[in-house]
Write a structure and sequence with these properties.
The complex is a heterodimer of chains A (865) and B (115). Chain A has 865 residues and is an alpha/beta fold. Chain A contains 28 helices and 38 strands. The longest helix of chain A has 18 residues, at 736-753. Chain B is built from no helices and ten strands. A four-stranded antiparallel beta sheet of chain B has the order 3-4-5-9, with no helix packed on it. In chain B, strands 2-1-10 form a three-stranded antiparallel beta sheet, with no helix packed on it. In chain B, a hairpin with a 6-residue loop joins strand 7 (81-84) and strand 8 (91-93). Chain B starts with 8 loop residues before the first strand and ends with a strand. The chains are: A alpha/beta (865), B mainly beta (115). The structure holds siroheme, flavin-adenine dinucleotide, iron/sulfur cluster and FE2/S2 (inorganic) cluster (FES). Flavin-adenine dinucleotide is lined by residues 12-18, 39-42, 49-50, 52-53, 84-85, 111-113, 132-133, 159, 162, 248, 251, 282-283, 294-297, 299, 325, 327, 462 of chain A.
């Protein structure tokens, strides 16, 4: 529409590096000097390819998108999706898309990435053969895997193992076939490959190394197996090729730009190709050091180099990069950095290897003790502090041996962030130095890690540097005299765990007393500390002692609205009612009662995700009426409102299921009844499956139980929700009694030490020593507190009473269930419903304007009590 | 027989004058109750730990729901007493009606006294 005299920059390829180029251009502040046209082959804007596999653990394609919403519009960048470029005319300075659309350029930036290499074996194009590079590939793999049993990955490198993890996650029996004699041959040495292999095999992935793929066996057009160069054959329904990548340089070849002998668009240190008007960056480029970099960090550096040149600023040359990586492959930490193979003349190794637990650590040092590189498998904690020290030439501050020995075997050493020089690169992905992070704190007033991330971009790539980032930020704040506030809220300088100890030891039974004696503010308290302290008092009630009913005395004033009305508030101010249905098992009679209650009170009824039934739309005054019917029929509160035990889901188990090996329903009911009513830092969920098929989804729960032919396996720290996490195995083949003892201890230890609103998953990842520490405390009783924890739980079980039955039995507690204290019996006029699919839904129209509801009331309606 | 002192009553100021709404005993420090006023409007009445008495409109302006009486009371480090909405947790100063989390929003405040 408008004619422009601005020079046009055309970017071909909108992947990770292309996106970084646009960001870097925006950062220079000169984006508005250009017309920028982005031609992208994929159907969606740039996304985080590095995190591709997280799609299988619940990330949506939208979650993976890069850049803030509105980023392109803010800077006026024009994006054309589904527009692959088919031709470059260098003489005429135009590019033409496959659809025939031609765009003229002044500067052309190629960021076309790479394509997966598929070895030329017979049958490679059959149905069921895939590659692993784009979201579309994942969609296709996922759809094809449904209902199929076996999958094989060709290639045991970094990407191959990611793909294997994905196939495993899709429930397939998984094989990995690697031509080299070990897994991840590029990153790890023989010892590391062996440790990796053992751990990965333990997860049930079958590893074939030292064999090539001969052919894909095809039946009726679809893959059904594969044969190896050693003559062996396996059956498989699906094959993912992950045998390396090749630069996408065809466009460049076709228009006569110089390309490398083994591929890649040749560029100089400023990323310029053999044509001055054309740059190439990222995985499609052959850098000046003769390498094609298959990692994102070097690509980001190239992107910055080109953006700076366009902006007319001094550009940092790209002459090569570090190939350090840290990954979590199939849950195993793998890190490799610097001169990992010890090729520097005179290099020495320090190796620790424990094949039993799959740990392998190697550091490569100079004779003087300066760090050159290393490999860490199974435990890569030290990566973020070691990598920045690599190649600095200064001897390590502690002997290298002490850095590879596991805690407990040697004197514990940690390299504090103070060991790092300012020019050490802390975040590899964005090339951010420790000095830049410190400056964010001292010069830009950042006081939290999220602020520092925003300010420096550090930590926004692979995320492996975040732990180090947070120590640097904390150290820096403390050094500048800023107290890092770990307090629960403005009222208390203590954490929740500290308050728990104070309440327990001093037997303080009210928030008022706790605030007066231990608060940093006097006053009312706040909506954060009140429910938190209320929950601590409820957890410890029998010990303090305090009333075991949360609506007694001061406790009533501390509860959030849900606990206060023993129901869940909904958007129009009505409440939902969830009776407990232990283990999801229910008699027809009880189902009929629920149906009758719902019908009589006009409640919207829905089966929840927790194997029980939710009744919505009750007004405050109806709650006691509804519950008196439910209690009479033998129902109890389901605590859907509390930070407490929700449901223990079950599968049908050995009673009916042909595969079941234990009675999962009986165990689920037993657990649900044992822990019902237990107040905790966050909600608690559980499930019991009758065999390894795991129909109850126990590994998505805070504590999950899976039957084995010898008893029960206990898993802890699972989570659904926004950040799903599979629970970790805590102990195996337990008897009923052992299982319950360990769960008692686990829950009480969690309640004692977790932060407010910290699910067991986040707690397990946060606390020092993680799962191993919890195992020591809970299974081995390393702190000698197991008896106390069990005794606390026993008191809880003895003291349990149904909150609703106890409320109905007490006039004082019942008194608060009125809509209007001066007009009992008058229904709240704002709570109205409209029909939907044969039930009701809230009428939100009546809430839109306050005046509509006004209707003068006759004075005698308003009585004073 | 000795005379029993009647418990104090909470009264709110309305266009119709002071209206008694409930006995003081019905208020739990730190929590509220909802009351219906003669014109059909709803107010939320609170008392804090110091015995202060507060009344505001019961409607949560962020959601339109009549629920503020069911929130929790708190005080800021400066000592401003507020109610946190039970729905999306925005806080409103009980003396001025100002929303502490969004200065563009406020709620009506009623004068309250013990009669
Ligand atoms: C009713 C139900 C949805 C349904 O219709 O199925 C539901 C409804 C709510 N969920 Fe849920 N969740 C329900 C099952 C689940 C499940 C599935 C499960 O339990 O197996 C999950 C994932 C599993 C998990 O928690 O790990 C789930 C993960 C969440 C989360 C995210 C938790 C997390 O750690 O990320 C929240 C938010 C929170 O708690 O902070 C949440 C919060 C909520 C709240 C309480 C939000 C709120 O404050 O209004 C919803 C109100 C319940 C109500 O009004 O009754 N709900 N919610 C389900 C009730 C189950 C039950 O019978 O008790
Ligand atoms: C599963 C997986 C895990 C990975 N893990 C890591 C990791 O842990 N660490 C790490 O550093 N790296 C990792 N990588 C590699 C990393 O993703 C790449 O290095 C990075 O994406 C390279 O960015 P790029 O922009 O050069 O290429 P890409 O991100 O591939 O983007 C290139 C884009 O150009 C488009 N394109 C190609 N030709 C044309 C054309 N003619 N016209 C228009 N558009 C075109 C493509 O469709 C693509 O969208 C991983 C890769 C995968 C697949
Ligand atoms: S988990 Fe096992 S026992 Fe339970 S229903 Fe599924 S297959 Fe049957
Ligand atoms: S090193 Fe990857 S985000 Fe910092």
């Amino acid at each position: 529409m408008t004619t422009t005299t601005k020079p046009t920059v055309v970017l071909v390829g909108y992947g990770m590096v292309g996106h970084r180029f646009l960001e870097a251009l925006a950062d220079t502040g000169t984006a508005d000097r250009f017309r920028v046209v982005v031609l992208a082959e994929e159907p969606r804007p740039a996304y985080d390819r590095v995190a591709l596999t997280s799609y299988f653990s619940g990330k949506t394609p939208e979650d993976l998108l890069l850049g803030e919403p509105g980023f392109l519009d803010t800077h006026g960048f024009e994006l054309h999706l589904n527009s692959p470029v088919a031709e470059i005319d260098r003489a005429g300075r135009t590019v033409t898309t496959a659809a025939g659309h031609t765009v003229a350029y002044d500067t052309l930036v190629l960021a076309t990435g790479s394509y997966p290499f598929v070895p030329p074996v017979d049958g490679k194009d059959a149905d069921g053969c895939f590659v692993y590079r784009t979201i579309e590939d994942l969609h296709a793999i996922e759809a094809y895997a449904a209902g199929r049993k076996v999958g094989a990955v060709v290639g045991g490198g970094l990407l191959g193992l990611e793909a294997a993890g994905a196939l495993k996650g899709l429930g397939l029996e998984t094989h990995v076939v690697e031509f080299a004699p070990r897994l991840m041959p590029v990153q790890v040495d023989e010892g590391g490959g062996e440790a990796l292999r053992r751990t990965i095999e333990e997860m049930g992935v079958t590893v074939h190394t030292g064999v090539g793929t001969n052919a894909i066996v095809v039946t009726d057009g679809a893959a059904t197996g594969m044969t190896f160069t050693n003559g062996q054959r396996i059956d498989t329904d699906l094959v993912v090729f992950s045998a390396g990548v090749r630069p996408r340089d065809q466009l460049a070849r076709d228009c006569g730009l110089t390309v490398g002998e083994r591929g890649g668009i040749a560029v100089d240190a400023l990323c310029k190709t053999s044509d001055d008007a054309v740059y190439a960056i990222g995985e499609c480029a052959l850098a000046v050091d003769g390498r094609v970099y298959g990692l994102v960090a070097p690509g980001y550096e190239m992107a910055t180099t080109v953006a700076q040149q366009l902006a007319g600023q001094a550009a940092k040359e790209f002459t090569g990069a570090d190939l350090s990586t840290k990954l979590k492959l199939l849950g195993v930490d793998v890190a490799s950095f610097g001169d990992a193979f010890g090729t520097t003349p005179g290099a020495l190794d320090v190796v620790y290897s424990d094949s039993r637990s799959g740990i392998y650590k190697k550091l490569v040092v100079t004779p003087e003790g300066a760090l050159l590189g290393g490999i860490l498998i199974g435990d890569a904690e030290a990566y973020s502090s070691l990598r920045p020290l690599t190649g600095t030439g200064t001897p390590l501050p502690v002997p290298a041996e002490s850095l590879v020995l596991p805690a407990g075997l040697g004197a514990p050493v940690s390299l504090g962030s103070s060991a790092l020089p300012d020019d050490a690169v802390v975040c590899n992905c964005h090339n951010v130095t420790k000095g830049a992070v410190r400056a964010a704190v001292t010069d830009h007033q950042c006081t939290t890690v999220p602020e520092v991330k925003k300010c420096t971009k550090a930590g926004t790539g692979c995320g492996s540097c975040i732990k180090l980032l947070s120590t640097i930020v904390t150290d820096e704040l403390e050094a500048s005299g800023v107290e890092v506030d770990k307090g629960l809220c403005p009222c208390f300088a203590h954490t929740r765990a500290e308050l728990y100890e104070i309440v327990r030891v001093k037997r303080i039974a009210t928030h008022r007393q706790l605030l007066a004696e231990h608060g940093r503010l006097s006053g009312e308290g706040c909506e954060v500390c009140k429910p938190t302290v209320g929950s601590i008092i409820a957890s410890l009630a029998p010990e303090l002692p305090a009333s075991g009913h949360i609506l007694d005395g001061e406790q009533a004033a501390l509860q959030d609205t849900n606990d206060h009305f023993l129901a869940n508030i909904q958007k129009n101010g009505s409440y939902s009612v969830v009776p407990r249905i232990p283990g999801g098992e229910i008699t027809p009679e009880k189902l009929i009662v629920i149906g009758e209650v719902a019908r009589d009170f006009g409640l919207y009824t829905k089966i929840t995700g927790g194997q029980r039934i939710d009744l919505f739309g009750a007004a405050v005054d109806q709650l006691p009426l509804i519950w008196s019917r439910l209690v009479a029929a033998g129902f109890e509160s389901g605590h859907a409102y509390g930070k407490s035990l929700r449901t223990v889901k079950s599968c049908v188990g050995s009673t009916w299921c042909r595969y079941g090996v234990q009675d999962s329903v009986a165990m689920a009911i037993h657990l649900e009844l044992r822990y019902r009513g237990l107040r905790s830092p966050h909600k608690l969920k559980s499930a019991v499956s009758g065999c390894a098929r795991e129909c109850a989804e126990a590994r998505g729960k805070d504590f999950g139980v899976i039957a084995t032919s010898n008893g029960w396996n206990l898993y802890v720290g699972g989570n659904g929700g926004a950040t799903p996490r599979h629970a970790d195995l805590l102990a195996q083949d337990l008897t009923d009694e052992e299982l319950i003892r360990l769960i008692d201890r686990f829950l009480m230890f969690y309640i004692r030490t977790a932060d407010r609103l910290e699910r067991t998953s986040a707690w397990l990842e946060r606390i020092d020593g993680g799962l191993e520490h919890v195992r020591q405390v809970v299974v081995e009783d390393s702190l000698g507190i197991a008896d106390d924890l069990e005794a606390l739980m026993a008191r809880h079980v003895d003291d349990y009473q149904d909150e609703w039955a106890a409320t109905l039995a007490d006039q004082d507690r019942l008194q608060r269930f009125v809509s209007f204290v001066n007009a009992p019996g008058v229904p709240d006029p704002s709570i109205r419903f409209t029909p939907e699919r044969d039930q009701v839904k809230p009428d939100l129209g009546v809430l839109a304007t306050a005046e509509d509801l006004l209707a003068t009331l006759s004075a005698d309606l308003l009585e004073i009590r | 027989m000795t005379t029993v002192t009647a418990t104090a009553r909470v009264e709110l100021q309305t266009p119709e004058g002071w209206v008694a709404v409930c006995d003081r005993d019905r208020l739990t420090p730190g929590r509220g109750v909802a009351v219906l006023l003669p014109d059909g409007s709803q107010a939320a009445v609170f008392t804090d730990r110091q015995g202060g008495l507060y009344a505001v409109a019961n409607r949560d302006p962020f959601t339109g729901a009549y629920v503020l009486s069911r929130g929790l009371l708190g005080s800021t480090p400066e000592g401003r007493v507020y109610i946190a909405s039970p729905l999306l947790k925005q806080r409103f100063d009980l003396s001025t009606g100002e929303c502490l989390d969004d200065p563009a929003v406020s709620i009506a405040v009623h004068s309250a006294r013990l009669g």
